[in-house]
Amino acid sequence: MSKFQSVLGYLLVIGIWCTAMQLGYKYYYTPDYEEEEVPVRLEQPEFFLANKPTKELVKEACEYFGLKHSDVVVAQSILETGHYHSENCIKHNNLFGLYNSRRGQYYKFDTWWKSVVAYRDMIQYRYKDGDYYEWLKKIGYAEDPQYITKVKGIVKRYE
Fold first, then answer.
1. b/e 79-110 (16+ beta carbons within 10 angstroms → b)
2. Predicted local distance difference test score (pLDDT) of residue 73
3. N- to C-terminal Cα separation, the chain
4. d(C-alpha 115, C-alpha 122), whole Å
5. Where are the domains of the chain?
6. Could you give the maximum distance between any two Cα atoms of the chain, in Å?
7. What digits encode the pLDDT tens for the residues 23-65?
8. Residue 17, pLDDT score
9. Rounded to 5 degrees, what angle do the CA atoms 117, 129, 31 make?
10. Which of 12, 25, 91, 96 maximizes the CB count within 10 A of its CB?
11. Do 84 and 57 form a contact (C-beta atoms < 8 A)?
12. Fold annotation for 46-157
């Protein structure tokens, strides 16, 4: 490589850098949507280390990730997994029967608590306010016509 090519390459890099500086880092490094501020936590919660979910750990995860109506969500996880014994729960860490209709299969998660995050991001983000049970009915969350009655029964049992 000649000295001229080296200098030309160097000037090109400087030109690109100056253009980036004029546009500002914001253009390159921030998404075009407002991210939610997440507080920095120095200690990780116990549930991050747990291999198997329990109702107490699922409740803790719901609260940690900011889910609303965590008692109902925990009851849903108990019902959907048969007290965390279903194949979908054990093999795929899917606590809520979250289904990918495009691929025709249930979602698979690395850890059970990631399904709690997925529930928040796929289902609960649409909830605004009001009766959560009615909202679950309205969105057609489950096919079982007795689903809400069963969830309410689980919530009552663990109150």
1. bbbeebeeebbeebbbbbbbeeeeeeebbebe
2. 98
3. 75
4. 10
5. 46-157
6. 80
7. 343 333 333 434 455 555 667 788 888 999 999 999 999 999 9
8. 41
9. 45
10. 96
11. no
12. Lysozyme (1.10.530)
Q: Which of 132, 117, 87 is nearest to 105 (CA)?
A: 87
The amino acid sitting at 81 is T
Classified as helix, coil or strand, 99 is strand
pLDDT at position 5: 54
Task: Report, as ranges of residue numbers, the positions in the chain whose pLDDT lies below 70.
Answer: 1-42
Place of tokens 């116990």: 46
Total-model pTM: 0.72
Report pLDDT for 28.
Answer: 34
Secondary element (H or E) of residue 106: strand 105-106
d(CA 92, CA 109): 6
Q: What one-letter code names the amino acid at 47?
A: F
